[in-house]
Design brief:
Strand content: 15-25%
Bound molecules: threonylcarbamoyladenylate, magnesium ion
Radius of gyration: 19 Å
Low-confidence stretches: 218-227
CATH topology of the largest domain: DHBP synthase
CATH superfamily of the largest domain: DHBP synthase
Length: 315
């Protein structure tokens, strides 16, 4: 059985909420990437997520909420966390916070940690689904483990269609990169994963620099597998001239051939195209050369994803 792909309508949202309350899995669009949603409080449903994704281990998942009331039932907010939430929620920001002792999110979804990752998405379909369901939904990116994140309903269908119950089609994801993950450690904001919200905007809001987790810490932390985003093809980065017969992913004006992330050199457009272009090239080439992308603004997150995609999975 392949999951039905349906448009976002009051009827389909009601069906999706029903599936979720029975412990099923629903792919939903968010502004960043498509998420594979399940009832965050139901450990059986959460276990089905790991099974469907074929995750090598129980990485902690992000719980998605649609109001402050829902967020405050699950996590304890410091002043700093509240400031960031008020500035950037709903939106592509995830915060790792101390879990509320009476929170409903299952231990399995938190991988047994005392913390919880929370996000309030901006996409109307995601917030409408959370509202219709009436509680937090955990949702990792709706791809099999080790594949790139899906930014279109068809990507989800190709990767997971036979393992899940329903796919809500909200068209292409406007941001195209996963959320930025911020942890709060000793009262300071720490960048755990660069993403769709530019780090500089967070620093500007706080009036101070955001610390970056060192690379070694990042791969030791759960869920920070270095090659999480690996496509099948070999990736060569920073290449200005691809080899004969090699796929080419480039950026900016005056590039010959290949797929261009943004011919006008716009990093926002490049982020939105990144995963679908990587997927398209991965289908046709054994090796993909990637041209340089400036390491500023969203380029920081784009280069992070490209570096991860270039590392072969050791498992
Ligand atoms: O944009 C996004 O964030 C998407 C959409 C669907 O919301 N979701 C997403 O989920 O990218 P996922 O599971 O692919 O990535 C979640 C990341 C993982 O690297 C995980 O280790 C980290 O969040 N994470 C979750 N809970 C954590 C915690 N308590 N401490 C540290 N990292 C955590
Ligand atoms: Mg993912």
């Amino acid at each position: 059985m392949t999951a039905r792909i349906v448009p976002i309508l009051p009827e389909t949202l009601a069906i999706a909420a029903e599936i979720l309350s029975e412990g099923g899995l629903v792919a939903m669009p968010t502004e960043t990437v498509y998420g594979l949603a399940a009832d965050a409080a139901n450990s059986n449903a959460v276990a089905r997520i790991y099974e469907a994704k074929g995750r090598p281990r129980f990485n902690p998942l992000i719980a998605h909420v649609s109001s402050w009331a829902m967020a405050e039932r699950e996590a304890q907010f410091s002043g700093l966390a509240r400031t960031l939430g008020e500035a950037f929620w709903p939106g592509p920001l995830t915060m790792v916070l101390p879990a509320h002792p009476e929170g409903r999110v299952s231990d399995l979804a938190r991988a047994g940690l005392g913390t919880i990752a929370l996000r309030w998405p901006r996409h109307y379909a995601a917030s409408a689904l959370i509202e219709a369901f009436g509680g937090p939904l955990v949702a990792p990116s709706a791809n099999r483990s080790g594949h790139v994140s899906p930014t279109r309903a068809e990507h989800v269908a190709a990767d997971l269609g036979d393992r899940i119950d329903l796919i809500l089609d909200g068209g292409p994801c406007p941001v195209g990169l996963e959320s930025t993950i911020i942890g709060i450690e000793s009262g300071e904001a720490v960048l755990l994963r660069p993403g769709g919200l530019e780090t500089s905007l967070i620093a500007a809001k706080l009036g101070r620099a955001v610390h970056v987790r060192s690379h070694t810490d990042a791969i030791n932390a759960p869920g920070q597998l270095k090659s999480h985003y690996a496509p099948r093809a070999i990736l060569r980065l920073g290449v200005t001239k691809p080899e004969e017969g090699e796929g080419y992913l480039c950026f900016g004006p005056d590039q010959g051939g290949g797929l261009n992330l943004s011919p006008r050199g716009d990093l926002v457009e490049a982020a939105a195209n990144l995963f679908s272009m990587l997927r398209a090239l991965d289908e046709s080439y054994a090796s993909i050369a990637v041209g340089p992308v400036p390491d500023e603004g969203l380029g920081e997150a784009i280069n992070d994803r490209l570096r991860r995609a270039a590392v072969r999975d050791p498992e």
